[in-house]
Every structure is written in C-alpha cells, then in structure tokens.
Amino acid sequence: MNEEILARIADALDRLAPPPPPPADLEAHPAYVWRGHGLAPARVFDPLPIEILRGVDAQREALVANLTRLSEGHAAQDVLLWGARGTGKSALVKSAVAAVQARGGRLALVEAVTTELSTLPELFNLLGTTDRPFAIFLDDLGFDGVGDARALRSLLQGGAEARPNNARLLVTSNRRHLVTRDIAEQASAINPRDSADDGLALADRFGLSLGFHVVDQDTYVDIVRGYAEAHGLSFDPVDAIGWATRRGSRSGRVAWQYVVDLAGRSGRNL
C-alpha cells in the first residue's frame, strides 16, 4: 500500500473522528461551556444587568456576596437555587457572575450540561490546574432516583474526586430537594425514613440554599417596569396584568415575554 493511499485513509479517519479542539485558555474568557468533551469559550456572555432583576433582592444580595468571596479566594459555599419555574434563578446566576466581574473579579462562569455529570471529575481536574476562581453552573437539575444523585453528592463533599477549592457549584432546580419523592419506593423500603433522608442528603450538601417563589401581582408589575425602563419602553400595567392572566402565570419569565411582545408591537427590537 503506497503512501498516497495511506494518506487518504488517514484523512478519511480524521473526518470521521476529528481530533479534540485545543483546550481553552482558562484566563482569557468571562464564561465557558463544558459539554463533557472539552472546555470551550461561551460564544456570547451578555446577561441582564443585575440591577433590573426585581423581586429577588435577598437572593441577589446573598448570591453576589458568596461569589465575591469565591472571586477573592476566600471560603465560599456551593449554592442551590430552587423554586417555581420562571422566577429568575438562571438569570440571577449569570447576572451575579457578571456583576462580580464588573467589579474587577477574576471569577469565570462554566456552564456544564446536566446530561454529562459523569464527566465533572474531568472538568474539576482541568480547573484545578489554575488558581482562577470558577462558578460551575448546572441549570435545571433534577433526579428521578436517589441512586442517580449519589455521584454528585460525593463530588460536592467528601468524595475522592471532590471539586477543587477554586470552584463552586451553582445549581438551579424546580425541586427543593432535587430528587423526586417516590412515595411507593419509600413505602416499600425497610425504613421509609432512611429512604426519605437519603433523598434529602444531596440538597443538604449545599451550604447556601436560595428559594424562589411565585410572585404576587405588584411584584410582577415591578418586574415588567424594570425590564421596560431598561429598554426605553412605556407600558400599561393593566395590559401587563392581562398578559399574565391570559398566560395563567405571573413570573419573571412571563414579565420578560410580555416586554418582548410590547417591543414587537412598538416596532422595536431588543
């Protein structure tokens, strides 16, 4: 077999299984994405200014304070942000990281896909090669069984491959305890209380737990007002309330969707 044929075979194999991309510079970017096969810079990291997020003042203060300590190399907590859907958990995570960066912090965000949790030790090993602080973001995390949660529990604390000191997890979930409460499984257990406690053990590993709840009408209108003012839009509160009523929900997400609709009706882009 001549060299030309070998070269063609090698080229074909490269196209079928291209070499992994070179590792991203851990000091160069404000945010990264981990999909289980390498760390890549986020194409766009442009979160909402944190001051326009309304109705989450206590959560904002606690999260920014914790991330500031992480950014400065001080002791900081892993954080669980739990509660009703659309209440601003994910938006607050990104905005809080950006707020710390705006103050000169070296902190970077790493968004890790929740379907690749088994690769987190590899990510931890990579981040542990630098002293730059990282907030590892796991969005909308939930488990259908206790067994699936145990691996993450050991990574948070006490396991041989726990996350390095310069990295902390920021996890959002619609479930306060992350694990679905299977009543049938608990009832069939030898000790149902032990089964329930095992399911709660993961949530207990987070040193900071922030709850997000369905907003009342006044808070919803205030959230709309914050978004509208930030984009130079005027609005009628009655119209905003009607939008939420038709959607059957009041939340930060619904408020933003209303503002998008308002901008479209006004011939504007956001």
Automatic annotation (TrEMBL):
InterPro entries with a match to the protein in the record: DUF815, P-loop_NTPase
Protein name as catalogued: ATPase
